[in-house]
Amino acid sequence: MEIKNTDDCFKFRLLRRIKPDKEKTKKSLELAKERLKQAQDAIKFKIFQFAILEAYMAMFHASRALLYKDGIQEKSHYAVFVYLKEKYSDKIPLNILNLLNIHRTERHEAMYGLEYKPEKEDAIIAIKDAKIFIREIEKFL
User: Fold this and answer.
1) Residues 134, 33: contact at Cβ < 8 Å?
2) Contact criterion met (CB below 8 Å) for 96 and 62
3) How many angstroms separate the CA atoms of 21 and 61, rounded?
4) What is the percent of the chain where pLDDT is above 70?
5) Which whole-number Å values give the CA distances from 30 to 15, 23, 33, 64, in the listed order?
């Protein structure tokens, strides 16, 4: 299965149309901010892998807030990136949208990879990028 665009995401049920939901939008954004705080706390305890995971999850939940606003339910992390890139690249700079995908792959390596061991600098960058990403998403909520 090759995913090229949002049509493919809907075809393969990686994205589904739902009723726009203001409450889920709000809760997702709150969760994004909670996860960002947890990422920041993890650095204090030198748990850099957890900081990477939480920074990405903060970005993911901020993205979901936008999807819920639009009436979209995700079933794939990659599909979220495809959707945002296709639907918001005229409003959100591509370099900021790409942060989601960059940290999605980094999160995957941190969770499942055998070689990747995040360092403090990796965690700091992930948190900085998550802050930028969340601020950008908030503009549309």
Assistant:
1) yes
2) no
3) 14
4) 100
5) 22, 11, 5, 11
Tally of CB atoms within 10 A around 94: 11
Alpha-carbon gap, residue 105 to 13, rounded angstroms: 21
> What totals of helices (H) and strands (E) does the chain contain, helices first?
6, 2
Report the pLDDT averaged over residues 45-50: 96
Q: Are 87 and 44 in contact (CB under 8 A)?
A: no
Q: Is the pLDDT of residue 1 over 90?
A: no
Q: Is 24 exposed, middle or buried (0-12, 13-18, 19+ CB in 10 A)?
A: middle
Which residue type sits at 90? D
Q: pLDDT tens digits, residue range 84-108? A: 999 999 999 999 999 999 999 999 9
Among the listed residues 132, 110, 107, the one whose alpha carbon sits nearest the alpha carbon of residue 57 = 107
What pLDDT is recorded for position 89?
A: 94
